Amino acid sequence: MSLLCIESAAEYCGRELTWGNLMRQWTRREDERLLTGGGRYVADMAVPGCLDAVFVRSEVAHGVLREVDCAAAREVAGVAGAWSAADVPDLPDTPYTLMARLATEEAVAGREWPVLVKDRVRYPGEAVAVVVGEDRYRAEDGAAEVVVRIDPLPAVVTPSAAAEDSVRLFDDLSNIAFEGETGEPIEDAVWRDAAAVVEARYRQQLLMPTPMECRTILALPEGDRLTVWSGHQAPHRLRAELAAVLGWPVDRVRVIVPDTGGAFGSKSAIFPEYVAVAYLALKLRRPVRWIEDRMESMLTATRGRGQDQRVRLAADADGHLLAYELAIDADVGAYPHLAGAMPLQTARMATGVYRTPRVHATVRSVLTNTMVTYPYRGAGRPEATIALERTMDALARRLRLDPAELRRRNFVAPESFPYRTPTGRVYDSGDYAAALELALETLDYAGWRTEQSRRRHDPAALPLGIGLSCYVERSGGEAGVLHEYGSVEAHEDGTIVARCGSASSGQGHETTFPAFVARELGVDQRRVRLVEGDTDEVPDGVGSFASRSAQVAGAALRQACGMLIEEARVRAAELWELPVAEVVWSDGTVSPRTGGTAAMDLGELVKATGPLQAENRYESGMGFPFGTHAAVAEVDPELGTVHVLRLVAVDDCGVVLNPMLVKGQAFGSAVQGLGQALYEGIPFDDDGLPRLAHGLLDYLVPTAAEIPPITLKETYTPTPNTPLGAKGAGESGCIGTPAAIVNAVADALRLTDADVLQMPLTPDVVWRAANLREAG
Amino acid sequence: MKITLTVNDEAYPLDVEPRRVLADVLREDCGLTGTHLGCEHGVCGACTVLVDGKAVRSCLMLAVQCDAKAVRTVEGLAGPDGEPHPLQRAFSAEYALQCGFCTPGFLMIAAGALDADPDQIAGLVESNICRCTGYEPIRRAITHATRGDD
Predict the structure, then answer these.
(1) Shared-domain flag, residues A449 and A558
(2) Are residues B56 and B99 in the same domain?
(3) Distance (Å, whole) CA A346 – CA A327
(4) Are A691 and A667 members of one domain?
(5) Final residue of a domain: which of A619, A639, A672?
(6) Above 50 in pLDDT, residue A647?
(7) pTM for this one?
(8) Looking at chain B, which residue has its C-alpha nearest residue A697?
(9) Of B53, B76, B99, at which residue does a domain stop?
(10) Any idea where the 2Fe-2S ferredoxin-type domain is (chain B) (predicted)?
(11) Is residue A204 part of a domain?
């Protein structure tokens, strides 16, 4: 095990781990302020004279805008202004994402995304006017007076329906905004000659990321600059996008990310509302903020997932996989601007953990009358894993093979890395069988199989099933965003400032990165402080998404530490008139190898030789974390309820910087995966409006009442692609857990037709599947 | 309307519109921003505070309803000497928070039950939403704090 791997909270804290010791300190640097009411989220900032912006939103999913009249709103006491699109002809449009080919120029060509609707409403909640007031109450008073008339049009809310183009979102253009593929088409003979071919259709339902803090932005004009505070994952990206929208050089915009109340992928973009706030702040020369409320976020925050999938999987009689085909109709929402090409990431990961010789995946990104689909924790990898792993269980049933054994026969072997998949990824490292075996042992797989068989002979017992899900994912990001800025600076007083371009939204960077830098330099961690999330303080950066901060920013900081140490040795050598080779670095001090002159601490060296900083732009390779999740579930066929009895998650993310924080994220993401499997979904009415009138009483995220016993285990396979060896962490549960749970339910019901179980597995879905089984 | 809120043992004489909810008045009129708004329709519990010792969703209560009542928020959880409340220490020790946005609500609902009826605590945790931790660390933290472990 690497020296970098910190084994316990006690080691992390540098003290003996007892409850008493832990109770006398804060385990994370963030904790003291966040536990005492001292956190500072954007909505907590008191900026004198700040106006609140409220958006007037469409109550239809699709329609022609006939009239917006803001005159009455402007007469309301405390309202500072109200505008429709016609009132602000110079309001810029919403830009499209340039980063990581999430969107493409071809997909957005001819498709304008106005910040305020000009003539056509394309999703429910799309903003048709904006009102600013002295406070939220006044602004809402004004919004209530805006007169809006929209003639409804038929709406399409599933990609399969929208792909028919019988209802078009843009009159002269197809709803299919982007097409792509990975791998090579598979010839008919392969399917014809295979001993077994399994086909299925899956719906990866739309999900709402639901961070507890909704979106926030506050814009303050000062001189010729604009300072923006936002709960955000990528401050430098927001700076660049705001500057481009305003036609300014980037150095006139400063983005500051204070405490952020969760993000899960949903806070890394620029949104129409952000453009409006920046524009109005400059127009009015006053600070303006928008604090999204939950009900508006349920209509207008980005969604995740949203794919209709068709799969075919072929194997020989021994269960060796021959070919896999995945066809995706992806729901990208009303505008392809933020992530119209993101579903290609599912196609790239279609191969999964198996050495299937032929894999072909196709993508059609289809516009629908819903808010835009965008990365949500897992971002394309859950969709790939769930489709393949559900199909593996269906194949095992067809071949009458144990699903664990079917997987064993097909894993990419540890000696095969780097492994180039038919769908274009180069996996860095892995031991997939080790993760599976650890999961089986931890679960007591054999014991549960025995119990399952006992129940099948006991008419009074509820059926029980065991589900497996073996995953591999991609961390670090796509080409173009695999780099990160990291620097370390030593000060005369002995303190060290680390800077990185990432931005924490709950991952504990303030704790993890200083501790890591302190270990690299061999100094007490109390001497190290992190600066991030401020574009004036950190010159460059990419951000925190795609499980990249430890992998990429961690490696950037490690290299920067190495550079700092080298520079310190060179300076000491000059000072002491020695060859550099004669200067030794140890525990934050330089000293001559042969003794003599006393050792000199880093702070002393800075005093003697001037400011000392090492800056680094590190470019990482991709990481491919992997693991196996396994679930045991009991089903009541009469009530349609699912009771998850056990969940085991074995994850491998290589070198871990802070195991307690990684475990915390693994647990939290497993619970989000449970949410996708069993609870979360957006039902639509025929008019295209989501049935979410009661907010979080309609959209059911898991509560403490729904949490099964979850056991987390790790295997350890560093990535050879970075000097640190860390792969990404934090998204594993969203990727691995859903298929394990769905497979357990399918196993309990002994379903031969996978299509009848579509997530979320509500009592209605499960009852129908169970009764179909009995009818059959 | 003129009211006096007593928040964390300090009197706040205020002139508030009757329609303003308690959470907004605590945050904006009293400057106590530790109480967070997560849903504004009473489901998530991030805005939970104690009013006369009882946990309430401060997004569903009007400030004028609390005239002459005692309100306790997360800012008032530590002891008079600044010593953190056992719940605050336990949450940190168990890694029971990540982004921290829901945390004040969990602390206050647990604090209210700890004073009144510790047996109720496990069930009360189920009434708030956390999207980061998966709840298990929160449950452990509250259990430790309830038992007064050291």
Answers:
(1) no
(2) no
(3) 10
(4) yes
(5) A619
(6) yes
(7) 0.95
(8) B43
(9) B76
(10) 1-77
(11) no
Contact A731, A473 (CB under 8 A): yes
| Shortest Cα distance, chain B CAs vs residue A51, angstroms | 13
Q: Which residues of A touch B84 (CB under 8 A)?
A: 35-36
> Is there a single domain that holds both residue A510 and residue A553?
yes
> Length of chain A in residues, anyone?
776
The secondary structure of chain B, three-state, reads CEEEEEECCEEEEEECCCCCEHHHHHHHHCCCCCCCCCCCCCCCCCCEEEECCEEEECCCCEHHHHCCCEEECHHHCCCCCCCCCHHHHHHHHCCCCCCCCCHHHHHHHHHHHHHHCHHHHHHHHCCCCCCCCCCHHHHHHHHHHHHCCC
Query: In terms of domains, do B66 and B122 share one?
Result: no
Interface probe with B: pick from A6, A17, A23, most Cβ of B within 10 Å = A23
Supply the CATH number for residue A597's domain: 3.30.365.10
Number of domains within chain B: 2
In a domain, B103, yes or no: yes
In angstroms, how far is CA B129 from the centroid of its own chain? 13
Tens digits of residue pLDDT in A595-624 = 766 789 999 999 999 999 999 999 988 999
Contact B33 A213 (CB under 8 A): no
Rounded distance between C-alpha atoms, residue A491 and residue A307, angstroms? 52
Q: What is the nearest CA distance from A136 to chain B, expressed in angstroms?
A: 10
Q: What is the pLDDT of residues A411-440, one digit of tens each?
A: 999 999 999 999 999 999 999 999 999 999
Q: Report the domain count for chain A.
A: 4
Residue B137 domain-assigned (yes or no): yes
Q: Is residue A296 a part of any domain in this protein?
A: yes
For residue A459, whether the previous peptide bond is cis, meaning omega lies within 30 degrees of 0, is no
Looking at chain A, the whole-number percentage of residues with pLDDT higher than 70 is: 96
Provide the residue range defining the domain that includes B64.
Answer: 2-76
Helix (H, G, I), strand (E, B) or coil at A610: coil
Q: Please report, for the domain that includes residue B127, its CATH number.
A: 1.10.150.120
Nearest to A640 by CA among A740, A762, A757: A762
Please report whether residue B81 resides in a domain: no
Are residues A212 and B27, on separate chains, in Cβ contact within 8 Å?
no
| Same domain membership, residue A662 and residue A565 | no
Q: Across the interface, do A23 and B149 touch by the CB < 8 Å criterion?
A: yes
Tell me: pLDDT of A745 over 70: yes
Contact A36 B93 (CB under 8 A): no
Q: Measure the CA–CA gap between A94 and A116, rounded to whole angstroms.
A: 9
CB within 8 Å of chain B, chain A residues 275-294: 293-294
A137 inside 8 A of chain B by CB: yes
**Distance from A41 to chain B by nearest Cα, in Å?**
8
Q: Is residue A162 part of a domain?
A: no
**B53 and B92 belong to one structural domain:** no
Rg, chain B, Cα only: 15
Check A41 against B36: CB less than 8 A apart. yes
DSSP state of A62: S
Domain boundary among B30, B55, B76: B76
Query: What is the length of chain B?
Result: 150
Interior angle at CA A160, CA A155 and CA A164, nearest 5: 70
Query: DSSP readout, A649-675?
Result: EEEE-BS-S-HHHHHHHHHHHHHHHHH
Residue range(s) defining the domain that contains residue A603: 483-619
Instruction: Decide if B133 is inside a domain.
Output: yes
Residues in chain B within 8 Å Cβ distance of A671: 134-135
Give yes or no for a contact between A354 and A391, defined as CB atoms under 8 angstroms apart. Answer: no
